Amino acid sequence: MQVPHFLSPSRFVDLLTCKLSVVAPHALQGTLPAAPAALFGTLLHRVVAEVGDGRWGAAPDAGAAFDNILKTLTTEHDGGAQPLSAAVGLQRWFTRIARARAWALRDAPTRSCGEPRLRYGTEAPASPSETRVDRGNEAWIVWPEGRLRGRADRVEEDATRKLRVIENKSGALRDRTGALIPEIGVQVGLYALAIDAITGQPVETVLRGDELVEVPWDAKTHESLQALLERTLATLPPDAAVAAESIAVAGPHCRRCRIRPACRTYLRDAPAYWVAQSINGRMPLDVWGAIRSVQKDGDALRVELRDAAGRFVVITGLDLDWGLQDIPAGDPVYFFALETDQQRQHTERVQPSNFRDAPPGGGSNRRRAFGLRVYTP
Ligand code: SF4
Is residue 20 part of a domain? Predict the structure, then answer.
């Protein structure tokens, strides 16, 4: 596998836990579908950028444009087994929409100046390689010498030539003590580092959630981020050939990684974490092992496994379309991105042994497993 020249500030924190999850070839990054919350976040970022750039079409104002574009984009996603809103959860759905709407209205011009680019996300624009710092929404920042390339949510320049980098955050900005989550400023800080190196202009770094938080950008932060960047890049020489397993580290952070089914390190190490007494956080809701039995349960399947950690595991509510009904006992089967009804607090410490796809009972409002994948090698 070849290490890419450019790394993205938006994935930099992931490099600190597992480098492979970031530098794996693009084709592998879509092995599993995006999680519903991540998909929804991407969609809202697009709506905010369109409204902020004034691409409202015939909408009379920014609020109407926000609603129209959001509706169009969510309709595109809702062709599957369950609407995105149900997969995300209604409370989180409406909270995030309200937050994104406030960002969009704050950035919007006074009138429409173009048509929304509704197909923008599917026609992935080519990534530039030349040095640049754009202004506006989804602004490219490309710093070849520092090997950083990404699109900041928004870059503004004021009358004093100060550049303000804004990153929109739909998740929490602060921990339970009210302090800023330490890693949360890394992305915006790396953009500031690049801007400083390219333009020499003064920079301000801002995170926008429910509140606007200015992240300190001073000589000390500059120095520590520069050191972090240099340390990290030194382990990933550009265009070098590396063995995937030499840069992979499995753990609870694998939850955010979409290449799990193709990652040998994860497949080798995850079972030990399922039964580890002390791990910091929950492993992904995946399981694999040897079939013990497959039973029909109404119009779904119930599968019993001896999993790779030696546990007895049950998976219910599986669609017949997975074709598991004729698999003989003893054959291996792999499930990725299941759901569980076991208590969340419990599953933060202990990997569940009861999983499901569809929830039991037609009237249940619990969500299906979004993006479930089943493999029978
Ligand atoms: S599955 Fe885990 S170990 Fe494998 S690349 Fe992803 S984060 Fe790294």
Answer: no
pTM: 0.89
Please indicate, yes or no, if residue 139 is contained in any of the structural domains: yes
Per-residue pLDDT 10s for the chain (377 aa) are: 899 999 999 999 999 999 999 999 888 887 898 888 888 999 999 999 999 999 999 999 999 999 999 999 888 776 666 788 888 889 999 999 999 999 999 999 999 999 988 654 445 567 899 999 999 999 999 999 999 999 999 999 999 999 999 999 887 788 888 888 878 889 999 999 999 999 999 999 999 988 889 998 999 999 999 999 999 999 999 989 999 999 999 999 999 999 999 999 999 999 999 998 777 788 999 999 999 999 998 889 999 999 999 999 999 999 999 999 989 999 999 999 999 877 665 656 678 999 999 887 655 556 788 889 999 98
Last residue of a domain, one of 183, 217, 251: 217
CATH number of the domain residue 305 falls in:
2.40.50.140
In a domain, 25, yes or no: no
| CA of residue 138 to ligand 1 center, whole Å | 28
Q: Is residue 223 part of a domain?
A: no
Give the chain's domain count.
Answer: 3
In terms of C-beta density within 10 A (0-12 exposed, 13-18 middle, 19 or more buried), how is residue 194 classed? buried
> In the listed set 107, 136, 151, which residue is the last one of a domain according to the structure?
107
- From the CB of 263, is ligand 1 less than 6 Å away? yes
Q: Rounded to whole angstroms, how far apart are CA atoms 141 and 151? A: 6
How many whole angstroms from 34 Cα to the centroid of ligand 1?
A: 15
Question: Rounded to whole angstroms, what are the CA distances from 273 to 54, 126, 163, 268, 309?
Answer: 49, 39, 45, 10, 9
